[in-house]
Amino acid sequence: MDDGLPSLKALRANEQTAWEAAYPILWRAAVGVIRSKLMFPETHDIDDIAADILADEVVPQVLRPTTNSFNNIRSFDDLVNVTKAIARNRVVDYIRYRMRRPEEREPEKGHSPDVRFAEPDCPEFSLEELLGIIGRLPSPDPELFQDRFVLGLTTSQIARKRRMPLGTVLSRFRRAFLVLRPNLRRLRGGT
Question: Which of 33, 56, 121, 153 could disulfide-pair with 157, CB 3.0 to 4.6 Å?
């Protein structure tokens, strides 16, 4: 860590301590932009947008950069600025989506009531199959899934309830999803 900030090298090496230090900073940066751009936002909307940004765009690009934005970052401050830029773009997407008439709306990524772990062409899994796989995750992951997908708590609410840093909750979800996908493929006899 330089000046108390995680190093890009440690983040790209996927070091847990670096990510635990980075998540809260990146989370605050994304949430700050989202909150400043949305009028009367729902807390769960802010959390969902921020979680999607970090899990779907920021973390994968830090680990394996494929875009110029992430190939050109040289410091953690650059990463924070790119995260803020992505947040601004996602807020615009969110506002456009909300302004459409209901019949024109396509399901929002990450906002479906069903949890989708598999590829679109894979068969669906029964609740028992999903619970069986989730139950094999290390503690506290099964409880986190229960809080999020059964009780409907936001990641911030889960962090408060479990007395865990928000970054830890988010990284546990990210790691759990990485474990779940191949396990579900094996369950269905996929590769």
Answer: 153
Query: Cα–Cα distance between 115 and 110 in angstroms, integer?
Result: 9
**Residue carrying the six token digits 């069903």:** 114
The 10 Å CB-count burial string (b at 16+, else e) for 58-92 is bbebbeeeeeebbeebeebeebbebbbebbeebbe
Report which secondary-structure segment, H or E, holds 29: helix 16-37
In angstroms, rounded to a whole number, what is the distance separating the alpha carbons of residues 63 and 33?
23
Cα 172 to Cα 147: distance, rounded to the nearest angstrom: 13
pLDDT in tens, 26-66: 999 999 999 888 766 666 778 888 888 998 899 999 999 88
- 81's tokens: 């600025």
31 within 8 A of 50, measured Cβ to Cβ: yes
Is it the case that residue 96 has pLDDT exceeding 90?
A: no
Count helices and strands in the chain by DSSP H and E runs = 10, 0
